[in-house]
Amino acid sequence: MTVLLPDLAAMQEFGARIAARLEPGDVVALSGGLGAGKTTLARAIIAALGHEGEVPSPTFTIVETYDHLPVPLVHADFYRLEHPSEAEEIGLDDYREGAVLIAEWPDHAGGFEHEPTCLAIALETVGEGRQAIVKPGEAWQSRIP
Description:
7 strands; alpha/beta; 23% helix; 7-stranded mixed beta sheet
């Protein structure tokens, strides 16, 4: 499924649709080149869940947690990982327990598309906007945003 995201308002609305369907254990795997909108979509999801204030990019911290949300959430940016085993070394499984994971650069952590709770979204630049190519895992089939 392809979703056109011509502007920031469309990205925020798409993020809100995803947020409304999240359940603990879900993974939202965001891929795409630099500047494709991964962090923008992650911020839209986190804001739609009720977070007020800044949502820092976890590029350097790798993991940011949002335990105060109705669905606890972990926002991770795996860009700096050199090998998927490093995700295990930082304790990713512990962070994920009972939480939603938003994963930027998921391939750097070994990928998540094989998990039934993964909503894989590939973002691409299209003119001035973006498009999202959405691949829902089995658990998302009835919840596609």
